[in-house]
Amino acid sequence: IIAFDELKTDYKNPIDQCNTLNPLVLPEYLIHAFFCVMFLCAAEWLTLGLNMPLLAYHIWRYMSRPVMSGPGLYDPTTIMNADILAYCQKEGWCKLAFYLLSFFYYLYGMIYVLAGSELFQDLAAGGNVRSIPIRNGVVVHTHPMLLVAVNQ
Amino acid sequence: MWGWLSAKHLNAYKVGVWAATEENEGPMQSQMQFPSGYGSHLPNYSAPSGHYSQVPNKAAASHLDNQYRASYYPGYYSAPAQNVLTSVGSNVLNAQESQQLYNSTPPHSGGSSDRSVQGAVSSASYSHVSAQQSYSAFDNHYSTSVSSSVASQGFPLNSDHYTMPVVSGAMYPNISYPSVAAGGVYGQTFTSQSLPAVGQFKETNAFSSQSTSVPHSLQQHIPVGYNTTLSTVSSAHSVQDNLSRNLTGSVAKVNNQKNTGGIDSSQPVHSVSQNVPFTKPGVGTSASSAVMSSVRSPAPSLSSKPPSLPSVTQSPELALQEGMQYGGYVNNQASSAPAPLSSSSDDEEEDEEDEEAALDSSSTTSSASPVLNNYDALEGGGYPETRSVTSSPVPSPSVLQTSKASKPFGYGYPALQPGYQNATPPTPQYPGVNQLSSSLGGLSLQHSQQPESLRPVNLTHDRNILPVSSVPAPVPNLNSDLRKLNCSPDSFRCTLTNIPQTQALLNKAKLPLGLLLHPFRDLTQLPVITSSTIVRCRSCRTYINPFVSFIDQRRWKCNLCYRVNDVPEEFMYNPLTRSYGEPHKRPEVQNSTVEFIASSDYMLRPPQPAVYLFVLDVCHNAVEAGYLTILCQSLLENLDKLPGDSRTRIGFITFDSTVQFYNLQEGLSQPQMLIVSDIDDIFLPTPDSLLVNLHESKELIKDLLNALPNMFTNTRETHSALGPALQAAFKLMSPTGGRISVFQTQLPSLGAGLLHSREDPNQRSSTKVVQHLGPATDFYKKLALDCSGQQTAVDLFLLSSQYSDLASLACMSKYSAGCIYYYPSFHRSHNPAQAEKLQKDLKRYLTRKIGFEAVMRIRCTKGLSIHTFHGNFFVRSTDLLSLANVNPDAGFAVQMSIEESLTDTSLVCFQTALLYTSSKGERRIRVHTLCLPVVSSLSDVYAGADVQAIVCLLANMAVDRSVSSSLADARDALVNAVVDSLAAYMSTASNLQQSMLVAPNSLKLFPLYILALLKQKAFRTGTSTRLDDRVYAMCQMKSQPLVHLMKMIHPNLYRIDKLTDESTIHVNDRVVPQPPLQKLSAEKLTREGAFLMDCGSIFYLWIGKNCDNNFIKDVLGYPNYASVPQKMTQLPEVDAPSSERTRSFISWLRDSRPLSPVLQVIKDENPAKTDFFQHLIEDRTEAAFSYYEFLLNIQQQICNLLEISLFINLGVELLMAVKEMTRTDTDDSCPWKNPKAFLHFGGYQKNFHMISVMRIAALSVRGLSAAPALSGCSWIIKQHCPSTCSSILSPLRSGADRTWSLETAKALLCGLSREKETAELFHRAAALWLLRQIRLIPLYSGSQRGSSALSPHSPTSSIHPQSCNHFTGIFTSQRKHGRFCFVQHCFGGT
Prior knowledge:
The complex is a heterodimer.
Chain A: H1 2-9, H2 14-41, H3 45-63, H4 82-116, H5 122-136, H6 142-151
Helix pairs in contact in A: 2-3, 4-6, 5-6
Chain B: H1 2-23, H2 27-33, H3 37-41, H4 50-53, H5 56-86, H6 89-104, H7 112-124, H8 130-146, H9 148-160, H10 163-188, H11 195-206, H12 213-224, H13 228-234, H14 239-247, H15 256-259, H16 268-278, H17 281-296, H18 298-302, H19 309-328, H20 331-336, H21 338-341, H22 347-365, H23 370-379, H24 384-390, H25 397-402, H26 431-440, E1 456-458, H27 480-485, E2 492-494, E3 499-500, H28 503-509, E4 514-517, E5 528-530, E6 549-552, E7 555-557, E8 564-566, H29 569-572, E9 573-574, E10 579-580, H30 587-590, E11 593-597, E12 611-617, H31 620-625, H32 627-638, E13 649-655, E14 659-663, E15 672-676, E16 692-693, H33 698-711, H34 722-733, E17 738-744, H35 779-789, E18 792-798, H36 806-809, H37 811-814, E19 820-822, H38 832-847, E20 851-860, E21 864-870, E22 874-877, E23 880-886, E24 892-898, E25 907-918, E26 923-935, H39 938-943, H40 947-964, H41 967-988, E27 998-1000, H42 1006-1014, H43 1027-1039, H44 1042-1049, E28 1052-1055, E29 1064-1067, E30 1070-1073, E31 1077-1078, E32 1090-1094, E33 1098-1103, H45 1109-1116, H46 1137-1151, E34 1158-1163, ...
Parallel strand pairs in B: 3-26, 5-11, 12-13, 12-17, 17-18, 18-19, 33-34
Antiparallel strand pairs in B: 1-27, 2-4, 4-24, 6-7, 7-8, 9-10, 11-26, 13-14, 13-16, 14-15, 20-23, 20-25, 21-24, 22-23, 25-26, 28-31, 28-32, 29-30, 32-33
């Protein structure tokens, strides 16, 4: 999102932008898919249900990507189209919101489970784990994975 | 009263200008002293009075503007005025010298100057006529200096046909004679200083032969007679009508704010008050008669030229345009008035002035070859000024209509041309309002003539909608001098010449908003400015342009972001006049198209040399086709003409399955060929010596070019390694950048970027999905982006006989800003037409101008934003296009959107700045600025629609759509574009017969063009179209400039076997016949005739079987039809008049475009005749509609659409009305209490018909509740219309509860029709409810049925079919925001 904003306001070259963004797309999708698999394994049906639409969207998005030889979604030649730029930006915001919400949901789930399993003292450690990814600014949902791992 | 006062001020103001000029002081200072200055400026600007009274915060802005204008124009014009008036040597010299100085700056100053000067002088020496001449010269001069790129065009006329001004003169009277009257009146009140004005006025009467003086005299008087604003309206067709109405002192319903380029249409009161005092019938008529006489006289004196057809179409345009200028813009005249006044003194002085003026203008035009421009102008879409050039003194249709005094020459055309539609001031048309105002009389509502561009055209009935000559670009409804300053429509065009105020309005109009650019067009004259500081806005970096406003001497306000900037010290000095302190006279501020020579700030690196690399396919296929011979020959011929300087470099690469390089290093005895067969990892064998200096190694290059065609004659290699060759080329070019020209003849089959055949020939004619319009691989795109990054453009010449996947290959040019040429089934000997085309294209390609390492930025006024770009380039930022190369044949399109409402501004501007390195290694910036008015009403938007631009933009959008979605989608979108816009128009213009398909005059060609688009190779289905052809057509649409694209979409068809000397024009001593345009339909073809079809890149000459043998003998050079060969591409030079005429016509057409088209003679049995017949787009084909069927189809769709929207809109209206009715205000100011205020309140919201009707209904119900019927009625309303709307909406939805509505209607009708004032309204109201009741069905299945369905229910006989039609208009769309959503909700999402 920040990147798209930059693209819109600043004079950053779309080629560079796409080059930086494109490699990130596939990992993001894979991580998300991995999550879904994990939820599936843990039989977390509600969580899985929440994530399935996004998974489906990701698959659709990747299927209908422009003709490209490398991985990624964004085509520097069309990214500057106002429609596509706006779309990408909107998509970014929606996803951010979704990941944030699901993050808190996972957190809640974790605390709930932790409280139940008398591992209260681990909470501090969990908190640390949580904060690291945020500070790094990496894709937000990397840490729910950790949490889920704790969960299990 | 107020208006009179302001006129007085104007006089004072004018005197002030005079004083200023005579004292030879800066006009600025003297200006500022006038206390009345402020008031006097009022009329200048678009929104008179309104600004001050109503919108206080706007007043400041307009004040500034006015001030600026006041100070600016008088200053500008004062120089000529000095010339004229005093004839003081020094002044004259000074001015003249400065002119010449100025004009010597353009780079192209050629030898034509002599000629034009002479012409000017000689023309000036017509002793008697010279008076006119002076004006024409002057006029031209002033137009030239304003838009100098055009300049040369105006002038040659001047020398050759000085008729131009006369034509305009003929036009003026119609438009502006009331102003003369006013001028006369006020002329008496002048002080001694203003005497010249009076003199001038007299002169108009005295020298009736000098008709040209008329326009100028009018011009002068306009500022005085303030009511000229009245006449602006009259530039619409029935002027006289209008005037007579005004003159008779009836309530002046003229809405002139519209016309003054203005914004505020909601202030009719002011306009009325201004107008009334001036309309003195007696004076007006006498003046008009005087003018009339002068109109008539010029014709004979001019008639050395026979009336020409194009002139018919062109002159009205001019006329209207001029009319607009005079009417719409007062300030200019005010300030320019002094100049022509001189003529009121004695003849000698006049003659002197003539010569001077002529000299001036000749000097301004000296550097251009006038002929070329003339062609341009004739070509259509020329400059307004130019148009007058070619026009002979034929009174226009508008003249015919309006003033019977002027005599028609030539043909009277029943239908007016679409071009000048837009010149007319759009005046909103609210039939409902008119009736209300007439019935309620005394309310001053807007009421005016329907402008020409909005004149409804019934498409299904009017068959001859095509103009006789080419369709000219509409002229924005601007003030005259802004218009003169404005950018030429050839380089810069907007789809809507009236910009809607809000996005909502734009959405309502259903027309696309966008720009069509041709920024690097070959211009014959272009002011080039060398300056160390280029003045730009500090925040948005806009270049200073003619539309900025100078706040005072030291500051200017940016017209795009409204920031106030300082004028740098250097800018104060004007190199043109060698004067100091006149920043507003600098050429930057006088021309909307200028070129700056940029300083080193604009360079990232030293300017690159011109570098050309040719990448040639030499596989078996290519050798077989034999293109190498043609290429090498053209190259040899044009080697010296390649644009460039001493650093120019050139190189060659050939490829088949290997890549061959050529070492041409100086010193070698012969070219060395270096073969690289490792195509997987390509490398450059000798990086230094492959690109060599053209001049140093010229001999080697020539050797190579001579040898190249024969080097590969025996090759058996069938593979083509295009990808590796391109990679090598990229490596070679990346240090410098430049141009790569790729010649490819087959599908690349080796190495990176290899492609597979994707086309299934059996699917070519399928009506279903067309696949593979997008690229198969992104190799070429990536390569193009890399190239673009290294400032290298790739131009593709595809000469293939088989499928070669142009969709993929084209990417290399698309994104690197190159160009694409495609020659299907090219063969040197088998297909001579293509071979000739290649030859001609190459000649143009090699010699045309080229700009390297270019970027183009498009800026627009705050509130507008750029949505999407179309063309060949890479978008680097939201408004920045990166163009590795820019060529003069590249066109661009831009879609715009309105992000913020433009209510605070009356003008919007667009600026394109193209920064490039010329082939001489100079960094230059070419700046175009376009200024357009903002309008607030829908009908104005329609009036300003530029149908050609719209169609071109839609074509671009459709190409995108068909690639990203599907072809069927794109086709649907095109049809929907017509349906939506016409439906929107039909619901606006409410008095129309809904059963007919009606379009505003400005859009009458819209369906035709869209049909033509649908039948284009790019979008057609059902006809066998090769994929490559289709893709190529799409590429063309994206990259061609408008003029060429229009020819491609809708070719021009002429009948040429009977060319006569009538209606000819003279270009460069040649007589060029002007046959009328024919419809593109087989019905126009006759076996006895010969027809020429101009498709832009190719001419088809179709010869009928029974064509006159004389024609065949004279023109084609063969004894009879049978002996004409199948493949004929040239017309022999036979010494016969018909041959001469034909050839001069064809060469005239050819000269009008850069790419010289090939002529192809087609006989009836020729297989190529399908090529010809496929362009006859009005005819039915197996797979596509004929034009008439298409119209019917559209009509059907519109009906469906309207019915739906009607339903929704009606719901909205009812909802509003119900809300009003159920309101229980006790406040005194409540509109219930005061019907007139109430109506006013309703009128405040523009679509007030329905609401007002319902409100009054409610009002009267309450007011006359004594009547038992009405009390029942009111009870019913109260009962059934509670504030919760569901109860009224549910019966509506179900269609049940019939009795209730009938009862209501009856009660309303009976009770309320007693009141005379509102009787009509209530008839309507009743009918409305009835209509609602019978669910609108009959309404659209024809008015007949509608009325019959109505009649059984109608309570009185007073509802006749006419009222039905009113109602359809009543339901004007009110889909605004929440209301719409709410209703949708209520209707359950209908």
